[in-house]
UniProtKB/TrEMBL annotation:
It comes from Muriicola marianensis. It catalyses: XMP + L-glutamine + ATP + H2O = GMP + L-glutamate + AMP + diphosphate + 2 H(+). It comes from the Bacteria. It is an enzyme of class 6 (ligase). The chain holds residues 193 to 510 of 510 of the full protein. Pathway: Purine metabolism; GMP biosynthesis; GMP from XMP (L-Gln route): step 1/1. Its EC number is 6.3.5.2. ATP binds at S29, G30, G31, V32, D33, S34, T35. The gene is guaA. This is GMP synthase [glutamine-hydrolyzing]. Catalyzes the synthesis of GMP from XMP. Keywords: ATP-binding, Glutamine amidotransferase, GMP biosynthesis, Ligase, Nucleotide-binding, Purine biosynthesis. Residues 2-193 form the GMPS ATP-PPase domain. Homodimer.
């Protein structure tokens, strides 16, 4: 029978044999799969594993700094690259969801390729691909861990894609990846993290993306996600987040009439993201979130809760 301990032992041994003294580069996303793949590879080849963690400016509030710190704490040889300005400048004025994805995918490739070139003599590209990624190939919108794979369409392969590929998790399902991660000593908080899309908050800001909108959405999202944790609801939900709608509506504040933004909160149950149901969160919780968001986030005067299931709706709004 399969056990995580046996898996780690045999995989580390075979990675050592296969890779020898070569260098490997790997893109970390903050997600479960890339993190577990990195820790496994690090166990096998130590600092010959060079990890790259890119800030695209579209992550959750403080995510880049906090997760980078955690990676360093785990002993990983990781370089954090803050490319926020490149991504946000390139997105300016773009409203079309698929074009936004293409822009983000294209810049990611450029940034990753630049960084990969700085690792002299790298021979391998490590990836956190898991079994379902390979059978489903890439669904229409990508799939949670498809960031690197889904954007080959840029005219000639970037150099890092010419490297030999090593995918230590390619035979595993998600729950097995989590068990391997636990055996490797990775914190529960990281292993239980909700999926988060590669294009990040860009596809939760309907219409064009600006720095101001990103900041507003980061604040709203942080209140919602921290609220789920504080109320013990986080683990009952498969994925949650907030959408910034391209809508202004009238409100009152004191004696003043306001005309401000509206956010939609979304929380779903799912097993693989292919179908999903909205979660019946307690009204008291939603009431508290609505009050906190409207009181604490300037520019937002209305909160709605999304009660649509997939299909026919999707999880993300773009
Ligand atoms: P939808 O909105 O299609 O989302 O119901 C299903 C799952 O996929 C994630 N998602 C993406 N992940 N790149 C990604 O890496 C994308 O472009 C993308 N679009 C959607 C979404 O967060 C959900 O988990």
């Amino acid at each position: 029978t399969w056990t995580p301990d046996a898996f780690v032992e045999t995989t580390v041994a075979s990675l050592k044999r296969e890779i020898g003294d070569d260098k490997v580069i790997l893109g970390l996303s903050g997600g479960v799969d890339s993190t577990v793949a990195a820790v496994l590879l690090h166990k096998a080849i130590g600092n010959h594993l060079h990890c790259i963690f890119v800030n695209n400016g579209l992550l959750r509030k403080n995510e880049f700094e906090e997760v980078l710190e955690q990676y360093k704490h785990m002993g990983l040889n990781v370089k954090g690259v803050d490319a926020s300005a490149r991504f946000l400048d390139a997105l300016a004025g773009e409203e079309d969801p698929e074009k936004k994805r293409k822009i983000i995918g294209g810049i990611f490739i450029d940034v990753f390729d630049d960084e990969a070139h700085k690792v002299e003599d790298a021979k391998w590209l490590g990836q956190g691909t898991i079994y379902p990624d390979r059978i489903e190939s890439v669904s229409a919108s990508g799939g949670p861990s498809a960031t690197i794979k889904s954007h080959h369409n840029v005219g000639g392969l970037p150099d890092y894609m010419k490297l030999k590929v090593v995918e230590p998790l390619k035979m595993l399902f998600k729950d097995e990846v989590r068990r391997v991660g636990a055996t490797l000593g990775i914190a529960d908080e990281r292993l239980g993290r909700h999926p988060f899309p590669g294009p990040g908050l860009a596809i939760r800001i309907l219409g064009d993306v600006t720095r101001e909108k990103v900041t507003i959405l980061q604040e709203v999202d942080a209140i919602f996600i921290n609220g789920l944790r504080e109320w013990g609801l986080y683990d009952d939900v498969w994925q949650a987040g907030a959408m910034l709608l391209p809508v202004h509506s009238v409100g009152v504040m004191g004696d003043e009439r306001t005309y401000e933004k509206c956010v939609a909160l979304r929380a779903v149950e799912s097993t693989d993201g292919m179908t999903a149901d909205w979660v019946n969160l307690p009204y008291e919780f939603l009431q508290k979130m609505s009050n906190d968001i409207i009181n604490k986030v300037p520019g937002v005067n209305r909160v709605v809760y999304d009660i649509s299931s997939k299909p026919p709706a999707t999880i993300e709004w773009e």
